[in-house]
Amino acid sequence: MSLPPVPQPSAGSETTTSDAPAAIKVQIQGLNFFYGNHQVLRSISMDVPALQVTALIGPSGCGKTTLLRCMNRMHDLYPGNRYEGAIRVQPDGTDIIAPEVDPIQVRMRFGMVFQKPNPFPKSIYENVAYGLRLQGVNQRRELDEKVEKALREAALWDEAKNRLHQMAHNLSGGQQQRLCIARAIATDPDVVLFDEPTSALDPIATSKIEELIVELKKRVTVMIVTHNLQQAGRISDMTAFMYLGELIEFGETNRMFTNPAKPQTEDYISGRFG
Amino acid sequence: MSYERDFTVRPEPYQKQQEGRAHRRGTIDRNFRRLGFLLTLATLGILGILLLNLAMNGLARIDWQFMSSFPSRRAGEAGILSAWVGTLLLMLVTASAAIPFGVAAGIYLEEYASKNRWTDFVEINIANLAGVPSILYGLMALGLFVYQFRFGQSLLAGGLALGCLVLPIVIVATRESLRTIPSSIREAAFALGATKWQAVWHHLLPYSTGGIATGVILAMSRAIGESAPLITIGALTFIAFLPPAPLISHAPFVSGEWLFSPFTALPIQMFNWVSRPGEEFQSNAAAAGLILMVITLSMNAAAILLRRRAQRNITW
Amino acid sequence: MEVSPPPSSRRLDKTVESFMVWVLRAGGWASVLVTFGIVLTLVTESWPFFREVPLIRLFQDTMWTPLFAQPQYGIGALLAGTLVTTGVALLVAIPLGTILAIYLSEFAEPKFRDWVKPMLELLSAVPTVVYGYFALLTLTPILQKIFPDLPQFSMLSAGLIMGVMIVPYVTSLGEDAMRSVPMLLREGAFALGDGKLGVAVRVVFPGAFSGLAAAYVLAISRAVGETMIVAIAAGLQPKMTFNPLESAATVTAFIVQVSLGDLPHGSIGYQSIFAAGAVLFLMTLGFNLAGHVLRKRFHRAT
């Protein structure tokens, strides 16, 4: 039932519908993922388009967060993980789950924003600068520039510019989450992964984050896991519906929400389960 | 069981009976509350009596002469110079052995080691080690450090014995304080491409310094008051000289000679005076005891305050 | 875009990483090495003793005089001292510690508890030589007014003070255990109309029992291994007696007494303290392991 480890890239898969736009950023090919003997993801294949927002939806436990965390090899932090298949990042086509690929380099190409804001207990400036420092940026001027740029892009600059050296924990929850976004994009990653980034925020903070994500896709590819169907509808270009570890349907968001191809998708979207 | 009462049958005086019970329970509770409060005060009072007792017998003895004199056969001329210098140097050895190894072990067990039989064993081992009587550390030091490694009855052997003794305290404090850091902080660092060591060095260690420092202070306060292991390695001798200075006037300016010097320490000196007849020696003992108490109690108080502050300051 | 850092710095990171893993692992090993060192020393240094003295004599002889010309090896004489002083200490620490634990966990205001608990813990931070001084020079004279025949060194005095020293072990661990009993259980009993003490005794105490038992066992281990209080106040002469009003040496006091004298490497005195140490190690090991298992079981249950 599992696909051969690396299927032909050109073959694509049947769930990758033709309404995907041209430039592909990430190709997921026959991805199986296991925790110990438990298979969590089953032969997932999808092409994530560049510079667009791709939402992963589905009921709890469907594997959407697991899939997201495959993208930056976060599973490698815990014992008992096993990947099969391939996740290729374009344009170079590197298979980032290949065992010889250094997960740390993968994480440097894939930024991540978590469910709850998790700034380091350091200053605002140091939070944003940390990823840059890890990548060897040490010049004060370069750091200053990139920190400012990231904070501007995260729409936090105006609120933070006079308190860059204050503790990040003094910010409000929404501001903290925008700081975490600034931290993730400061290093110019190829893709930014959002794992339910607004689940801990109030509606106003949520709408700010949503605006920000739409803004971000001008220069970076976004993948977002969300429980909130309206949110997926508002901000995403493409939507993937997952259920029980399988990718049921993947296509343009508008089409998915108005005219789903699969009955499970329709049931989920119309609120019949999940 | 007393709860298995038949509630369906309600004899006439039932209501009254219940009221009486409830009243009685209230009285019992009030009395127990009083008892508990009084016993708490009484137990804490023992600490006060201890301090007061030492102060009454020993405070008058504490002066410059007492601090700057060597032990002597004449109680009035005796002092604790070699004792406090010895304690200071011992703590230097103890700290430099226990802190690096303890913190490293704590980090390893909490952040690196995977859960398996071996780590279970190490876990049980540390729990047991924390309960091994201090005198057994003395026996180990006697057999291993004094004779096997030929350190002699020296500061090095004594300091290492105390270092082994407090090692579990430092390990446990390090682990507990790492455990309070939420895993989301670790994930944030890893997601930015930090290696494990970078996550530890840039984040986990800085965020847990408060807890580790608390543990280190408690460990040192325990070590300062220990006498049994030092007696076992033979430290209880008449020491009327100071160890060679660690800093010397010619290159390389530091000398390790003091490590191999015989020594005495405050609790040892106190034990020596306690076991001598004569009121004058006993007031010497009280004076040394008072100094010891003030040192250990203030270290403990500092640890308590530090822990409080660390808990207040960081909310994840 | 290619954002991989310069490969040289990544290589450096990797080197540092694997180096640090080894450094940290060495730290983890240190704790094992200490245990190994203790066991190894006790075994090798007491080996000649046990080869010379048949085990049966440890139990047959009624006196412990390994240094005499005609030595006797009845370790029972030392164990009796340890047993009596520990027993006296527990008679103080278990009731007092348990009452304080119940009071602090179920009755006291949280603010009061937060201040009192660390202060109680100071009692176990007092240097034991200070306790010994207090037992010998303050408590014993007071006790002599009650028991006129009480000698200068007595197991009663040492045991009582040792009890005070271990109260915090019982109270602290016991209170932790009782407080982690879920509120729901208490509410069930309160709803039936039980009083606070009734709930504490009938619901909380049984619910926290393995945690409390762990506290008791660890307190016993402390008392068995305590050295300076008994060495100073209980006397240094081994004696087969169970009367706390007499003086007698414990296992630990014997080690101190021999260590105070001249102790050439390999002499019978030297070997005998390692033999006594081995016995002490086995006893406390048993208690420590039991305490560890009970604590683990309690944590799993709640």
Automatic annotation (TrEMBL), chain C:
Protein family according to the UniProt entry: Belongs to the binding-protein-dependent transport system permease family. CysTW subfamily.
Major subcellular site: membrane
Organism per entry: Verrucomicrobia subdivision 6 bacterium BACL9 MAG-120507-bin52
Protein name from the UniProt record: Phosphate transport system permease protein
Keywords, comma-separated and alphabetical: Cell membrane, Membrane, Phosphate transport, Transmembrane, Transmembrane helix, Transport
GO molecular function annotation: phosphate transmembrane transporter activity
PROSITE patterns referenced in this protein's UniProt entry, alphabetically: ABC_TM1
Domain of life (superkingdom): Bacteria
SUPFAM superfamilies per the UniProt record, alphabetical: MetI-like
Keyword presence, Endoplasmic reticulum: no
